[in-house]
Design goal:
Largest sheet: 9 strands, mixed
Structural class: alpha+beta
Order of helices and strands: EHHEHHHEEEHHEHEEHEHEE
Strand content: 25-35%
Helix content: 40-55%
Oligomer: single chain
Radius of gyration: 24 Å
């Protein structure tokens, strides 16, 4: 078996100015993404509850980028082991590599202890002023200490996007005399280096409801996190739930990939998107495009699987009837979207490359106002 070296697509941002522009770019993108989600809700693309879930994950992603920006604010100027640079996946991702997010989680666990041992921000600022006035020297080490304190404070505040975001369960209106639940969870995919969000609706025919049944709930949570791999088809995940839990009946499953993010300054593109960004020649703040994909699987009907003494309900899932690839893709439907500033959009419209006709475009205009083109 041939092993793929994923690290060849990794790139440390060693230029401090480039790193700051990268974080500024993502601060803007995550804010715009929230507006796009709300627009899709208004047009019926997402239910209000689903929109709220996606916005919350976008906000968590923004908080993680903010924490990383503090972590690496001064680190590139240091010498020795203290010198560090953010590492991103420059091919078909544009996001930080998985290890960056995993390290955030590890640092967050230690944050309270570390903060208790560090000087407060006000004291560090006073020392910086004294150093500048008395020695007329740049207090780089103190700036670094302050940036690390602010980084740990951001981690301690919580609300970040972690490698695994535990499933949250919410009751829905009962149907067919059964409790109906919605679960949402997310992971930062270690192979794709992208955030992936899941939303599952299911019926519960158990004697004790899932919200009250701690044992069954713990089993389901472990099952969902273990199946949160992008290479698995939605139908594989849904059938796995259906087979392993006779009293839980998956009715609808969504999976949303946020990304890749493309930019001439930070990523390596292939195919039409490379031509679009090259043709646009947009300035750094407008030199980007964010793709995202929504896969959806729905149950079409229920069949009874007969056993020795009883019959068990099994879901039959609907696959895309209009696409020959429906069965191969393992989904009822798939929606693709692209968010991009005006210059790249104009280049896309002029080049009109094949394969983009069914991709929904959201164009970012003045004041980050989002326009839907089609």
């Amino acid at each position: 078996m041939v092993q793929t070296d994923l690290t060849r697509d990794h790139k440390p941002l060693e230029d401090e100015g480039a790193a700051r522009r990268y974080f500024a770019k993502f601060a803007r993108i995550t804010a715009i993404l929230q507006g796009v989600v709300r627009q899709m809700e208004a047009q019926g693309g997402f239910a209000p509850s689903e929109s709220a879930i996606l916005v919350s994950y976008a906000q968590a992603l923004s908080a993680s980028f903010h924490a990383l920006s503090l972590k690496y604010l001064i680190a590139g100027r240091m010498r020795g082991l203290a010198q560090r640079h953010l590492t991103i996946d420059l091919h078909e991702s544009g996001f930080p590599i998985f290890q960056e997010i995993a390290t955030l989680a590890n640092d967050a666990a230690q944050a309270p202890v570390c903060l208790a041992q560090m000087e407060r921000a006000a004291a560090l600022k006073e020392q910086m002023v004294r150093r500048i006035l008395s020695e007329r020297a740049a207090p780089t080490d103190l700036q670094y200490a302050l940036s690390q304190r602010l980084y740990l404070e951001a981690l301690a505040a919580g609300g970040l996007f972690w490698p695994q975001m535990e499933p949250e369960i919410a009751p829905l209106a009962a149907q067919n005399g059964r409790a109906r639940l919605r679960l949402n969870w997310a992971v930062y995919d270690s192979q794709l280096n992208l955030p992936v969000i899941h939303v599952l609706e299911l019926e519960d025919s158990g004697r004790l409801g899932l919200l009250q049944d701690a044992g069954r709930r713990a089993r389901l949570v472990a099952h969902l996190l273990a199946q949160s791999m992008s290479e698995l088809k939605l139908i594989t995940i849904a059938k796995g739930i259906d087979a392993d839990f006779d009293d839980l009946h998956p009715k609808r499953l969504l999976r949303i990939h946020l990304g890749p993010m493309y930019s001439r300054a930070y990523t390596l593109q292939t195919g039409p998107i490379r031509d679009v960004l090259e043709s646009a020649q947009a300035p750094d703040g407008a030199d980007w495009a964010l793709a995202w994909t929504v896969e959806e699987l729905e149950s079409a009907r229920v069949e009874l699987e007969k056993g020795w003494f009883s019959a068990t309900e099994r879901e039959v899932f609907a696959l895309d009837p209009l696409s020959g690839a429906g069965a191969e893709r393992g989904a009822t439907r798939m929606r693709r979207a692209l968010i991009l500033p005006q210059r790249p959009y104009q280049a896309l419209a002029e080049l009109n490359p094949p394969g983009f006709a069914e991709v929904r475009k959201f164009v970012v205009g003045a004041g980050d106002r989002v326009l839907v083109t089609e």
